Amino acid sequence: MKVIFLDVDGVLNSTEDMMEYLKRTGKKSAGLYDEVEPRALKLFKEIVDKTGAEIVVSSSWRYGWTHKHLELGGELIIKLKEELEKVGLKILDTTPILHGVHRGDEIRDWLERHPEVESFIILDDDSDMCEFTNTNLVKTTNSRGLREEHVIKAIDILNKK
Question: What is the pTM of this model?
């Protein structure tokens, strides 16, 4: 199994996207910017389509996820689920919420419970990925989000034998 550990803010949306959103809507402020941008979603779908990878949400958007009753989850995970479903994508799981540790520790915990994973990437704009930072992290930026160069790198890592 191939897995994408997905962050949302700084990957599927960005500061640049927020500025475009404000222009487009005429709003003065976005408050909590909770949009999943079509531009980034299209690029993300390309990664999934070309690799067959499963999606595991590692973003703070995962708070409120419940495996049996997703409809009871928090607003952000429900919004992400709905946006992904619009383009034919589905969330497999989320990483555990372990307080006082790095995101990389939560990813390691998930991987230890899933030995069937043959390859994975972490799509994130942060660098707190422990031992995975130099091997599996496809690092975006909060200002620009997911871009074509990240897609190429992600596909390469996931499809390497």
Answer: 0.89
